[in-house]
Amino acid sequence: xVYKQSLSKTRTHKLTVVGGKSYxxxxxxxxxxxxxxxxxxxxxxxxxxxxxxVKDWVR
Length: 59
Prior knowledge:
Helix content: 10-25%
Shape: globular
Strand order of the largest sheet: 1-2
Number of strands: 4
């Protein structure tokens, strides 16, 4: 049996240090599915003030 959870637009997650020089953030699977993103997909990450904006990469 599959239960569908309501998709809240805000989640709180922690940053994880990877390799000592980079950080990793786990995205909620519901968000990734809603956006239609796939594993190893290229994404654009932009810093706007104190906000990170993550978008699908456009050629």
